[in-house]
Amino acid sequence: MIQPHDPDLAACFWRLRGLIAQQGVEQWLQEKGSAPSVEGLVYLCKFGFFTGLLTKAQIAAALKIPRNELKALVKGWYDDHRARGCGTC
Question: What predicted TM-score, i.e. pTM, was given to this entire model?
């Protein structure tokens, strides 16, 4: 997982935020998607995945995680979505 001190964190965060803005869905983002942090980047990845803007490969690259960690992360997102319903990203 990308670390808080990673020099790529802010650039990746703003790139994903820009991609979301280009699609016209930035207004749906919650507060945690407003400033660069590991939590914010994970949130943008989850949001991007569930809105169809990001692929799993793009998420793995953004978060710097191997395939097995990606699989567990996405499974957790689906479990959370099933438990709490839409709008939890």
Answer: 0.86
